[in-house]
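Q: I'm writing up a methods section and want to include an example of the input and output format. Could you take the sequence below and give the corresponding predicted structure tokens, formatted cleanly so I can copy it straight into the document?
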Amino acid sequence: MNQRHPRTFAIRFNRMRWSLNGRTFEMNNVAGDETVRLGDLEVWEFVNESSHMTMPHPIHIHNVQFQVIERRLLPQFTDLYRTVADGYIDSGWKDTVLLIPGERAKALIRFEDYEGLYLYHCHNLEHEDMGMMRNYRIKA
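A: Here is the clean output for your methods example:
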């Protein structure tokens, strides 16, 4: 397991486009850091610390359920966090994690059952329409 060195996916805004790790959607492309092995247990960390256009992003991962195992927040966003903290329920199984501005969240994911090509993306419709989604591949 990669607990000490999670796969990190940073939300970015550049040239009027949202992206994940600086990449936007490509129908058949999968980057090297987006390929996982069937049966592996991994930590993925989603980061919403971009300095431009700070806004909440609900990140959804297809084909898996996961557990939120850690959240961290930049100190300057503490007051914002207090306005939503009571709505956070991180216990149990998830397929989406909400990240407010200045926040990072780690998800513990087991990639089991099926090989194939799947999506992870921001669930804000206008963001996914602008390409803020990527493929990931599960392979044996």
